[in-house]
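ingest -> validate -> predict -> emit
validate: passed (alphabet ok, no gaps, 770 aa)
predict: started
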Amino acid sequence: MVTKKSSASFFLILAFAFATCAHVIAESHLHSIVDPRANSSDQTQIYIVHVLPPSNNIELLGAHELEQYHLSFLPNTTLDSGEPRLIYSYRYAVSGFAARLTPGEVETMEDTDGFISAHPNRIHRLGTTYTPTFLGLLQYDGIWYKTQGAGVIVGVVDSGISENHVSFDDDGMSPPPLKWRGCCQFKGACNPYVPTICNNKLIGAQNFFPFQTPTDKSGHGSHTASTAAGNIVSGAEVRGHADGTASGMAPRAHVASYKSCSDSRGCPTITLVKAIEKAISDGVDVLSLSIDDEPAKLDLNDIAIATFTAMEKGIFTSACAGNAKEPIRKVVGNEAPWILTVGASTTDRRVIATVKLDNGMEFYGETAYPLELASSTGMVPLVYPGAVADTTQRLGCLKGSLDDLDVTGKIVLCGIGVSLPHEKAEVVKAAGGAGIILLNQKWNGYTTESDSLAIPSVMLTNTDALKLVDYTTTTTDPKGAINFEGTKMGHRPAPAVASLSATGPNPNNGGIIKPDILGPGINILAAWNKQVGPNPTGPDERAFNFGSGCSMATPHLAGVAALLMSAHPDWSPAMVKSAIMTTARTVDKDGNKIVDERSPDMSPATFFLMGAGQVNPSAAYDPGLVYDIQPDDYIRYLCGLGFPDQRVSKITKHRISCIQSGKISAEQLNYPSITVPLNSAQEKTIYRQVTNVGEATSTYTAQVVEPDGVRAEVSPARLQFTQIKEQKMFTVKFTPDRSQPKSGEYSEGFLYWNSDDGQYKVASPISVKF
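emit:
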């Protein structure tokens, strides 16, 4: 047996080590976070409420009148988070409605005349990509009832595509737009007149590597393409988990695949740039780049340079903020202001496995071990190799590290990192282990992932990992079991910033807040190139898998952009970005601030982690006001960064004279977020212009949540519009409100433009750097 002292020494010595935090979250609070079955009288749930029909003939009621009748049963129309309580008003299937309520509110409703009964919503067949439901696309006022992306072409620059996958069938799809100039390269040369297997959904597929085809061999490209614009596919699941209907964000958009990431050699810059160039030439409307770009000055960043041209052509680019699974959080990449930079967030769905110890303790984690094989392991001995020798090899269950240990028939505890989970599972399996428990490091925090591994498995949060390691290293005969509980909804808090999501600020863009937005990026179910897990069965044409990272978040936003461009073909890419950012949610499903899962105490996320917040597609459809940016504005911004004419010309691909074009500082770019450098001896005024895309005749009033230590004054404080596309200028003057701010400190606030009719709340995050 190893003592606590010797076990703790490993954590301090190894680069791979856990944090030795002595103050763990109280058990009651822990279960409120990780136990999806936890319930309380104040936790909001979805209920189906049965009521007597109104006294007059329901057939004669219009939709508005019926909705008002159902609203009369509710305590109010919205939750604290701003979400509408009413989800559906039913007319024929039942007399009643679906709404978000707490058990206590349902109990109060029982005394209301006309109330019959209410019961919590049951999950029969889950939405498997699930994020269309999680993001509200299917609500009664959701964007899918207005558009599903028809006529828009999404170009996916990735590892290729599985051309025969059901997510890319073309049933019901219209032909591609006449502007489409791409081709399908599966059968040789890229010649549009050669018969191919592309169709009206997958309208193009090209490869940029010798001796390869556009076919996806890794699964990544198929996953991202189907997340952005895959078909609605029933019966999708991962080895029996999350069984239901899968769909991309824009299921009626067209897909063009550009294989710029090799099956074995990664994603060379030259192929990435070539793919983007070809996509621009082919006529795509949206680019989805799940590329983990390293921060670099904009004139040295080929992706930034390539996508500048895309922006000039009216093409919207969604790109990955970056993944950070190491002790030091990665600095956000893809930071150019003409790119929508996407961070990764969680959802409220979990595929649950529990670790139960022989002392009665239980820990909830995640898995995707095949449901048909997922019987309990039974109570068997636990082994923690990290306690046997002071080596990274042991702690991480790396190849060869278990050769001299007896793990036969035992569950092995393995630290996350260095090798992939499936590689660790193979090592444990080869050594005779009965199961594997994957232990999050401090920097993995509370973010867990679902993997279909070779043996029974579960991944635990860092907080639970520390408790389990302590039990295993201080108990004479530690024993435990892995029990599989299937797919559960209602995890809290959700959404939250995933521990792997990269952070700003980025030093290369003048301080503009990045990432711009959060999109779902953890345990996203989407198309895969082949069946996964042990003893795979079923056709590869129906293979799905869970994926996690900003790679999964990025196509969500590409798909949302496709929806908006389909609905508003006259909007510029900057207008689309503004609509997404100014309507984002900064609170979770329970109305609390979005938190960071890497932080040990689940502290609120800063703007440099979440940008404007979690994407809210249906609100982005009708944002009221937008901030537009023209290509010439970006040129003045580049000149203002101090680039000489030649370097600006390198980005724009045409000759630029900064003397002629003029210069603006980064904070003066007409961006939807505001970042202002400020010192105690100055005040600063920034300029913005908004374009009316809401009601023609409308008035907006400014509301400022001032950053700590700063006074902010908006002029004019009211904006009046009389027509669509009318533009109005305003200024915000920032004055320091304390004499000695700490150098390098950031302070956050918000600027809201609220319409007088209450329909619109146009939000801009403010970050002041002292």
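Residues 550-567 form the longest helix (18 residues).
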